[in-house]
Automatic annotation (TrEMBL), chain A:
It is a multi-pass membrane protein. Belongs to the complex I subunit 2 family. The gene is nad2. It catalyses: a ubiquinone + NADH + 5 H(+)(in) = a ubiquinol + NAD(+) + 4 H(+)(out). Its EC number is 7.1.1.2. Residues 22-283 form the NADH:quinone oxidoreductase/Mrp antiporter transmembrane domain. The lineage of its organism: Eukaryota, Metazoa, Ecdysozoa, Arthropoda, Hexapoda. Core subunit of the mitochondrial membrane respiratory chain NADH dehydrogenase (Complex I) which catalyzes electron transfer from NADH through the respiratory chain, using ubiquinone as an electron acceptor. Essential for the catalytic activity and assembly of complex I. This is NADH-ubiquinone oxidoreductase chain 2. The chain crosses the membrane at residues 58-79, 91-112, 118-139, 151-170, 182-206, 243-265, 271-293, 314-333. One of its GO terms (molecular function) is NADH dehydrogenase (ubiquinone) activity. It comes from Asbolus verrucosus (Desert ironclad beetle). Keywords: Electron transport, Membrane, Mitochondrion, Mitochondrion inner membrane, NAD, Respiratory chain, Translocase, Transmembrane, Transmembrane helix, Transport, Ubiquinone. PANTHER family: NADH-UBIQUINONE OXIDOREDUCTASE CHAIN 2. It is found in: Mitochondrion inner membrane. GO terms for biological process: mitochondrial electron transport, NADH to ubiquinone.
TrEMBL record, chain B:
It comes from the Eukaryota. Residues 31-77 form the NADH-Ubiquinone oxidoreductase (complex I) chain 5 N-terminal domain. This is NADH-ubiquinone oxidoreductase chain 5. Core subunit of the mitochondrial membrane respiratory chain NADH dehydrogenase (Complex I) that is believed to belong to the minimal assembly required for catalysis. Complex I functions in the transfer of electrons from NADH to the respiratory chain. The immediate electron acceptor for the enzyme is believed to be ubiquinone. The chain crosses the membrane at residues 6-29, 41-62, 74-93, 100-119, 139-160, 167-185, 205-221, 233-252, 258-280, 287-309, 329-348, 360-378, 414-435, 441-459, 480-499, 537-559. The keyword Membrane applies. Belongs to the complex I subunit 5 family. It is a multi-pass membrane protein. GO terms for molecular function: NADH dehydrogenase (ubiquinone) activity; NADH dehydrogenase activity. It is an enzyme of class 7 (translocase). Keywords: Electron transport, Membrane, Mitochondrion, Mitochondrion inner membrane, NAD, Respiratory chain, Translocase, Transmembrane, Transmembrane helix, Transport, Ubiquinone. The gene is nad5. It is found in: Mitochondrion inner membrane. It comes from Asbolus verrucosus (Desert ironclad beetle).
Length: 336, 560
């Protein structure tokens, strides 16, 4: 690892922290810019020309979004100085659109799979997890128009469900799954920030777990998934369970945040949106199951030469934690 | 068993006279503060019923020693009968729903084993019908156990009067009523009772007198304190219809055992309807008396069938009075007792029931259906006598008819005295002070009138000889409908089997493999793939497009 990457990584982290913890829109914008400028060098590698393409795409998109954000902030400041009853909803929507573009939520998502396709798995992980924090917290600061947010949620769900159906690239599948989860997270931002935190934490945990194995086995496409970790059935099995957890199937931890969100929505009498979200997420679950089943049940080959050297203990521990923490926590809290 | 029966009888007298009851409770387990206990209730009712059951079963077992003499599996048969009696005893003495379920399911299971005892297709079908009909009752009982959990204990005897009118209690009583209706073969579930005649005759004698079919009535007698008005009306309607329907059916039936089975059904309807009118003691009285003469009636029928090489069709019989005099005498005594001829045992219970009903102020439907059913009872009894005992002998010209089977005769003779005297004895024992019956003269003799009318009709309708046109054949289709119990066997076999299966195949063909497959799973998949392909187009050279879209969206927002 190059030395400068450590610095830029720290800068990136700091940028997010500045953005989330600052008090004014200007410093928020500043944090976002620091974050953006320091992730660009992290993306580019010499060995892969696609990475610089995606870095440029990411830069242009984020720069445009930052521009719009800054413009909206300045204009709101000029017109009504952020005094709540006077806030113009159009400007708020512009600001939110900019933030959603940074996030990669659905009608503004076109850059997202393109950028992801050129990245290494570690960068993908940063894009899917860490880069979500700053825009999402900023969205939470704005009071979003319910109709607008509902539209965003439904378009996120529909787009992700539709687009993921024909993908064979695992990075794109994970991207669209991330868009799907963004919809759920936006619905939490309408109501409670703590449930967003839980959702995000669990999502990151599962995603990290999945991406780590993909990185170790150098797996980028759906067909390759048939060949990975066939030598160790236990790890393969528990690893495949992670996809079900990501889809939100009940005994796993991925069910918990969805459960909380549905509970919130139902308590606030938002039955229709809750039902829509559940039904459209089913299609995502179908895709996860397609990934899982074909590699576990239908297609199997075991290479004799290539032996995977992985830390079984660590993987097993992480898998166990991500899969069964809901059960174990429930048991522990009931027993105590 | 005989001595136990006598001991229990004496004990019941003791309990009755001193008006006492003992209650034993053995705690088994405690679940969520609901205690599961095995309970024994010893009061005069359970003791008396148990003594009757044990007496009849001891006579029946003695009788079946000869009736089933040539059978290879007689040991299995006897042990099944003993298990049957044991389940019945368990049911009688427990005032707790869970322990009742033990006896209840035991009855259902063992009755299935007994009905399919002669292993042929007909008895398999009959056994399946019996078991499945009774299964409905089991389910109802299980559901009432589940509802009873709300009260914290399953000893229903404590809750009957206190919680009358409670919502849960209404549900429980309805479910209990459903269970009792299946066990006692009331109208929607009646078809299993004649079908269960596929069992050996001693079993029929035991089942149809005191054990299986009376279990439902007994349960209702125990539960009757908690019935609401509407439930009582419902029960009255159903049971009176059953009484009428089975009386009619018996008048057109030609199978000896089925006639007696239908008469049992009619008497069960009578018990149920007087229970629904509030006279639970009268129902119990009739239950006991009926048990005696019905057991003997079946044993006489068994004797006849035994002598006629297992032929049950009454058209082959006739003139048996000359060759089997004692059996015919017993048969006649039982029949007359069943008809309610004065001073035989059936008279005491049946006359009392009808008069209590006449004293009430219910509608004309109830009044007439009672008298019609009594007339029909007499009608089919005399028809039976006409066909079997008098006239010409119509069986094979070469046959052996004798009354040399002394074991069976001894068994039957054990009951005959009780059939004659037990009605009066019980009426003096159970009713300390006489029922006050005040009726006009014509209403008082209405019973006798309907009996005489029944005699006349029963004799005239069934008269037949060479080149003689049978009157009931003039209305062939009506007779067919009435003889087949108002199509109940068809409804409860074909109706619940054929139509749902047919419906299932139709739905499967048209929906699961047709419309749902095309517009459901396949269509969803295809449309998703199509839309996915469509939206993939946006990704060709998209970045420029995307930026233009974003800027235009901002323009739109700025403009408005």
């Amino acid at each position: 690892m190059k030395l400068y990457k450590i610095m830029f990584f720290n800068m990136m982290v700091m940028g997010t922290i500045i953005a989330t913890s600052s008090y004014s829109w200007f410093s928020m914008w500043m944090g976002l810019e620091i974050n953006l400028l320091s992730i660009i060098p992290l993306m580019s590698t010499q060995k892969n020309s696609l990475s610089s393409e995606s870095a440029i795409k990411y830069f242009v998109t984020q720069a445009l979004a930052s521009l719009i954000l800054l413009m909206a902030a300045i204009m709101m400041m000029l017109i009504n100085e952020f005094i709540t009853p006077l806030v113009n909803y159009h400007f708020l929507m512009i600001m939110n659109s900019a933030l959603l573009t940074k996030l990669g939520a659905a009608p503004f998502h076109f850059w997202f799979p393109e950028v992801m396709e050129g990245l290494t798995w570690l960068n993908c992980m940063i894009m899917l997890t860490w880069q979500k924090i700053a825009p999402m917290t900023l969205i939470m600061n704005n009071s979003m128009n319910p109709t607008f947010s509902t539209l965003i949620i439904i378009s996120c769900l529909l787009t992700s469900a539709m687009m993921v159906f024909n993908q064979i690239s695992l990075r794109k599948i994970l991207t669209f799954s991330s868009i799907n989860h963004i919809a759920w997270m936006i619905s939490t931002t309408m109501m409670s920030s703590s449930s967003w935190l839980i959702y995000f934490a669990v999502y990151c945990l599962i995603n990290m777990n999945i991406i780590m194995i993909f990185k170790m086995t150098n797996t980028f496409y759906l067909k390759q998934i048939n060949n990975i970790i066939n030598t160790n059935k236990t790890i393969k099995f528990s690893y495949m369970m992670n996809f079900l957890s990501l889809g939100g199937l009940p005994p796993f931890i991925g069910f918990l945040p969805k459960w909380i969100v549905i509970n919130w929505l139902v308590n606030n009498n938002m039955y229709t949106i809750a039902t829509t979200m559940i039904i459209l997420t089913l299609i995502m679950l179908y895709v996860y199951m397609r990934i899982t089943f074909s590699s576990m049940l239908l297609n199997h080959n075991e290479p004799k030469i290539i032996k995977l050297k992985i830390n079984k203990m660590a993987i097993n521990t992480i898998n166990f934690m991500t899969l069964f923490s809901l059960i174990t926590c429930t048991l522990i809290f009931n027993l105590l | 068993m005989l001595s136990l029966s006598l001991i229990l009888f004496v004990w019941s007298l003791y309990l009755m006279i001193f008006d006492m009851s003992f209650f034993f409770e053995f705690g088994l387990v405690m679940i969520n503060s609901s205690s599961v206990v095995m309970t024994l209730l010893v009061d005069w009712m359970s003791m008396l019923f148990m003594s009757f059951v044990l007496f009849i079963s001891c006579v029946v077992i003695y009788y079946s020693d000869e009736y089933m003499g040539g059978d290879l599996n007689i040991n299995r048969f006897i042990s099944l009968v003993v298990m049957f009696v044991f389940s019945m005893v368990l049911l009688i003495i427990s005032p707790n729903l869970i322990s009742i379920l033990l006896g209840w399911d035991g009855l259902g299971l063992v009755s299935y084993c007994l009905v399919i005892y002669y292993q042929n297709v007909k008895s398999y079908n009959a056994g399946m019908l019996t078991a499945l009909s009774n299964r409905i009752g089991d389910v109802a009982l299980l559901m009432s156990i589940a509802w009873m959990l709300n009260y914290g204990s399953w000893s229903y005897i404590f809750y009957l009067e206190e919680l009358k009118g409670d919502y849960y209690m209404n549900i429980i009583t309805f479910l209990i009523l459903l269970a009792a209706m299946t066990k006692s073969a009331q109208i929607p579930f009646s078809s299993w009772l004649p079908a269960a005649m596929a069992a050996p005759t001693p079993v029929s004698s035991l089942v149809h007198s005191s054990t299986l079919v009376t279990a439902g009535v007994y349960l209702l007698i125990r539960f009757n304190f908690s019935f609401g008005d509407s439930l009582m009306y419902f029960l009255l309607f159903i049971s009176s219809m059953t009484m009428f329907m089975s009386g009619l059916g018996a008048s057109f039936e030609f199978d000896l055992k089925k006639i007696i089975a239908l008469s049992t059904l009619s008497q069960l309807g009578l018990m149920m309807s007087i229970l629904a009118l509030g006279g639970y003691k009268l129902a119990f009285f009739h239950l006991l008396v009926h048990a005696l003469f019905k057991a003997l009636l079946f044993m006489c029928a068994g004797n006849v069938i035994h002598n006629l090489f297992n032929c049950q069709d009454i058209r082959y019989m006739g003139g048996l009075v000359s060759s089997m005099p004692l059996t015919c005498v017993y048969l006649n005594i039982c029949n007359l007792s069943l008809c309610g001829l004065p001073f035989l045992s059936g008279f005491y219970s049946k006359d009392l029931i009808v008069e209590v009903m006449s004293m009430g102020y219910l509608n004309i439907y109830v009044y007439f259906i009672f008298y019609l059913s009594i007339g029909l009872t007499v009608c089919y009894s005399f028809r039976l006598v006409y066909y079997t005992c008098v006239g010409d002998f119509n069986f094979f010209s070469l046959n052996v008819l004798s009354e040399r089977n002394y074991v069976m005769l001894k068994g039957m003779s054990g009951l005959i005295l009780l059939v004659i005297v037990m009605g009066s004895v019980l009426s003096w024992l159970m009713f300390f002070y006489p029922y006050v019956i005040i009726l006009p003269f014509y209403m008082k003799v209405m019973t006798l009138f309907s009996i005489l009318l029944g005699v006349f009709v029963g004799y005239e309708m069934s008269k037949f000889s060479l080149s003689y046109f049978n009157l009931s054949m003039a209305f062939y289709k009506t007779s067919w409908f009435l003889a087949s119990m108002w199509n109940l066997p068809i409804i409860s076999t074909h109706g619940i089997n054929y139509y749902p299966v047919m419906m299932g195949s139709l739905l499967y063909k048209n929906l699961d493999q047709g419309w749902f497959e095309y517009f459901g799973a396949q269509k969803a998949y295809l449309s998703l793939v199509k839309s996915s392909k469509l939206s993939q187009i946006f990704f060709n050279n998209n970045i420029k497009l995307f930026f233009i879209l974003l800027v235009m969206w901002l323009m739109v927002l700025m403009l408005f």
